[in-house]
Amino acid sequence: MSIVGQRIKWLREKKEWSQIQLAEKLGIHNTVLSRIESGEKKGVDFHLISKVADLFEVSTDFIHGKTDNPTPFWQHASVREEPAPFLDVDGLTPNELEELKRHIEFLRWKAASKGRQNENL
Asked: How many other C-beta atoms lie within 10 A of the C-beta of residue 52?
């Protein structure tokens, strides 16, 4: 079983959802989810992992096994209480803040992917 599959299964079971229930929420067939959880399906799409992270309010790094802390970095107390000085979020709507969070998460994923590519050179 892959770490991605293990984490998704753990999150699903924690909510006491069936594979069918989670698959419906993600907009995929339950057999696809079953293959992901069992590790049979490799290379889970980034957008699907992002949907899972949003649904369970965890970081994509947690799903990928890069951290054991499921809390997304933007929910850490220090970030919420005092954002980075360059990050002026005043006046943004809740939807715009969510979009900003997704952009930041994508940039972190992109940077991590580049690091992996450079390691393989």
From this structure: 24
